[in-house]
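Per reviewer request, we include the raw input and output of the structure prediction for the construct analysed in the revised manuscript.
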Amino acid sequence: MRTTAEQTRTAGQLRRAVTAVASRARAERRGDLTLNHVAILGRVLVEGPITPGEIAAQLAMSPQALTRPLAALERRGYVVRMPDPADGRGALIAATDAGRRAMRAEMEPRDRWLAQAVEAVCTDEERELLARAGEVLERVAVYGAAVAPVEP
């Protein structure tokens, strides 16, 4: 499929807008978790139980780069390791109730800011359009990759 100049311009505008909203939402974060911890815990919440290697692959990290943040999440009681029934030498990582609560607490200020911003600057029609666009963007986000959305 050939991409036209208009499609490329539209894609650039969409990328800039999505990046700006994501950056602004991150600024509203609670900050109890690092962005790296949020990404890792998010993968575990969406895909788990999951192997450390699968987490690393989905986040485009080396398995070695995952070692310390995963250990920190374990120490805080947000994830647990369990034997992998498919590989007796391996482990699966699963989220705990504390991990789910920590992620909800981390996301709540972001979601609240975005809801307030949409309410303040959008018409009813635009709010409906954004709801539909969110569904479409989730599909676009996974195009060509074996990775589900990062945040549950």
